[in-house]
Amino acid sequence: MATTNDLKNGMVLKLEGGQLWSVVEFQHVKPGKGGAFVRTKLKNVLSGKVVDKTFNAGTKVETATVDRRGMQFSYKDGADFVFMDTQTYDQMPITPEVVGDAANYLLEGQECTVAVYEGNPLFIELPAAVELVVEYTEPGVQGDRSTGGTKPARLETGYEIGVPLFITTGEKIKVDTRSGEYLGRVNS
């Protein structure tokens, strides 16, 4: 148990019949009149739904002990993704629903953090940016080196993003895993 005064971003709370909610942001508010309160933005760990919730300051909230483990993506087994714990070398199959959009950026050997609650994987956190090779993109038109325009490019994971016109097939690029945006070339 904790109180709303102890809230931190990333903390996981157990609310409303055992549902798990992750704290996205919070703000302590002390109005001139009346009691202080805490305004929060919470994200449902399983569904991804984000809600705003207000608590009175000092209210007791139940926290969930979520174990964040460093894991490495090993291989795909049917539909499931198999991850290996980098400490114990135990393997854990994770369903595509839990992996979610992270699947667009996963390569064998990719390091990430897996949040586990009572033995069940909840979600996967990737690094903010990953380096991937462009598997295929249309050649840019000669003289078309100005800024602005983009074209589709298929990455080695099979995911398609928009890249600048000067990017060619076989180049290694940096991609933002939160937005799926092109961040730049990787000089090898």
Structure description:
A hairpin with a 5-residue loop joins strand 8 (80-85) and strand 9. Helix content is 2%, strand content 53%. A six-stranded antiparallel β-sheet has the order 1-6-2-3-4-5, with no helix packed on it. A five-stranded antiparallel β-sheet has the order 9-8-7-10-11. Strands 14-13-12-15-16 form a five-stranded antiparallel β-sheet, with no helix packed on it. The model has no long low-confidence stretch (mean pLDDT 88). The chain contains one helix and 16 strands. It folds into three domains: 11-56, SH3 type barrels; 66-125, Nucleic acid-binding proteins (OB fold (Dihydrolipoamide Acetyltransferase, E2P), Beta Barrel), CATH 2.40.50; 129-185, Nucleic acid-binding proteins (OB fold (Dihydrolipoamide Acetyltransferase, E2P), Beta Barrel), CATH 2.40.50.140. It is mostly beta strands and 188 residues long. The protein is globular and about 65 Å long. It has one helix at 96-99, and strands at 2-3, 12-15, 19-29, 37-44, 50-56, 60-63, 67-77, 80-85, 91-94, 111-117, 120-125, 129-137, 150-155, 160-164, 172-176, 182-185. It comes from Streptomyces radiopugnans. Its main location: cytoplasm. One of its GO terms (cellular component) is cytosol. It is found in: Cytoplasm. GO terms for molecular function: translation elongation factor activity.
